[in-house]
Amino acid sequence: MSDYAFDIAVREHTVKTSRHTTFYLEAGPASGTPVIFCHGFPELAISWRHQLPALASVGFRAIAPDMRGYGRSTVHKSHEDYALEHAVKDMIELVDQLDIERAVWVGHDWGAATVWSIASHHPERCHGVANLCVPYGGLERGLEAMLPYVDRNVYPQDQFPAGQWEYMRFIEKNPGRTTEVWEVDPRKTFKTLYRRGDPAGHLKPTFTAFVWRDGGYYGGADEAPDVDRDEWMITESDLCAYASAFERTGFFGADSWYMNHKRNAAYAATAKNGGRLDLPALFLHGRYDYVCETMTSRLAEPMRELCKNLTERVVDSAHWMTQEQPHAVNAHLLRWIANNLPDVWPKG
Asked: Whole-model pTM above 0.70?
């Protein structure tokens, strides 16, 4: 729940290079092993507000940036600026500026695609990687790479050619429409997005599958409906923080991450070792995540083939796992580090 907190200070910093500015949050001792958290769509560094103090409390240096296009990091002006190759460069520049040689990287959603890409292109900068909801061998390789793993029992080809990813097709073919709708009232938008998992949705088409058919989100409406805030997921103050950030930046940067499937596929093809990962990797499945559905579909199969040292665990949550089940996420993450990366565990 959103009142989950520790009595540990979280500090704000900014790193600037000639190509990009990254704002980030930091908690814990500067001497601790760095654990870097990369958020996804449409989130912010504060999406890791439950993880930063938890890791810092045992002596890690916990860092969470606003990814490009979000919050107080640079909002670049063209769609192609949001290809994964650029996000990876942002993160490598961040650790270079902070004199960090290697880190434990943790990602969620597009942040997971970024972290998988860091591991496959820059394994020498990683102790290990942990990712939530989005498995390796899928999103970072482009939309086409995911289509063979759609569960056609749930998403018949003739009705849902792109399965649950129909919303990605809509954003790609109608750039600006989703941005326009969500920007009308970001507060309403986030209330519709941040919802708890629902066991009743199992083996049923999820809402993202209807976005293309309906001509956009919310049945093609011009703005998000005004639903009640899910108190389990997000406090009023957290909601205000998200809404004010996106009122300032808009959703162009966030939506533009979906405009680079072909560029991302080309970048993935240049990964080291054919994209195979030897380093320790953790993947957390969301039991009720019906967009990134990995419990009954074959979406996680490429990850299992590509990762030599893979640990998998299941969390009883929907997609917004860090906010819905923070205790479980923190426990799985800390246990995995202790068991698989004992040399980086804080001393003393």
From this structure: yes
